Sequence to fold (439 residues):
Amino acid sequence: MQPVNLTNQHNSNATPQPAPPLAASIKFKFFLTGLAGLGLWFSLYWQLQGLAAYLAFSLLGLEPGSHLGEAMLFFFYDTPKVLMLLTLIVYGVGVLRSFFTPERTRKILAGKRESVGNVLAALLGIVTPFCSCSAVPLFIGFVTAGVPLGVTFSFLISAPMVNEVALVLLYGLLGWKVAALYLGTGLLIAILAGWTIGRLGMEEHIEDWVREMHVNASDIPDQKLTWTERFGHGKTAVREIVGKVWIYVVLGIAVGAGIHGYVPEGLMASIMGKEWWAVPAAVLVGIPMYSNAAGIVPVVEALLGKGAALGTVLAFMMAVIALSLPETIILRKVLKPRLIAVFIGVVGTGIMLVGYLFNIII
Amino acid sequence: MEIKVLGPGCAKCAEAEKLMRAVVEEAGVAATIEKVSDFQQIAKHGVFSTPAVVIDGQIKCVGKVPSKAEALGWIKP
Fold:
């Protein structure tokens, strides 16, 4: 990559800038720092396996192959690995997200036909910065701007479910195939569930005050960012997300390590196996549970390691992340009960189908 | 000056309110600061990503906690 491309000038057609050499040197410094950081990251990342073995077996003097030794090895290897992956990806996504704002996403989605709109909304759900507490203002903003109801739901389902934290953890702990399956089926559920809700024509089940509201959002300034600010967004994302979830990651991996070392092989096969009732049971248990991806994925890994079926476990995880009781209660402010019930029903059914599908094919 | 911080009440919204209070005190300007957490009121401002800061009816920022320098720039005469 040419370092020259790294910075975005505010107004290229203005009078010539007085100090281009300085600007160029800043760009170059950015480029070098980034390269050095990446190099350091990779060289450390490849050392982790050896480091973990050293910590567990040499420093702590545990017996390789013993329960405690294997549990500690798992913990010492997975914790730094996942945290490093998380930092790198969250930083990257933070920078990427500075290109997408909810305002811009709304502009893209407003007036889009359904189907095309559902696909776009699900994809934009991944990259648009979204905090679950702004789900309600966002819903109002989308619906009043003429984004179809089903398209809005595609966005609201995909935004929390398909997120970088879940994907990194699945990749780091279970490999790229499981991560890709999760990404693909998560998007598919968001698209199809939103499309279905749109087909059902439930616009009158939005609370009346929302439908009667006419808002005008044209005066929100569309901010232009410099690359320095975009990298700043990446840094902020790392501080906020990794700073918040690292403890769940560590605790989750510790629980995972415990199950890894002590719970007998195949125990989970009898509880979270491929029986017909296992998938709906996993979804029903998952809905009232509220956890972020960071807390649930390490547990998922341990469950899988002990013989739980992949479909059942993925369904459980999706139910925990995508259908949460607190979010449902907040959405009640803008949705009438029947639409809430349809939302849970349609998304829950989609998750169960995914669970059955993987139990059959894998 | 009339400052409104819009947000349903998550951690970021509280942070934005705290920042605006600190900045007003530091700049020593006369201002009222109001936290708006009612969804209907928030929507009426045309804001749909929170937290947002509105000063004298003008939307200053949406969807993020402003930086201190930014906030000072808005309220300094």
